[in-house]
Amino acid sequence: MGYYVYILQSEVDQTFYKGFTENPTQRLLQHNNGEMIYSSRKMPWRIVCVLEYPSKKEALIAERKIKKYVNSRLLVLINSVKNIYIDL
Prior knowledge:
Elements (H helix, E strand, L loop, with lengths): L2 E8 L5 E6 L2 H9 L12 E9 L2 H11 L4 H8 L10
Antiparallel strand pairs: 1-2, 1-3
C-alpha cells in the first residue's frame, strides 16, 4: 500500500488544492462529489500531480511542506519526474 500527496487544480479558477491520501482516485471522486466542505465551492477538480512515499509519516511531512509552496514552485513539482500521475 502506498501513501500519496496529491495536487488538484480547480477547473473553475485554476487554484490548487494539496492533500494526503492512500487512494488518489477515490479522493478525487470525494472532492468532485462535494464531500469535502473546503473544496466543494471550486468544483470540478482534476488531478495534476501525485507523489508516492514509502511511509505515512514521510507523506504527511511532505504534504505539510508542499502546502506552503507558492504556485511557481508547485508548477515545477507538477512538471517534475517525481510526479507519478501519468503512471496511475
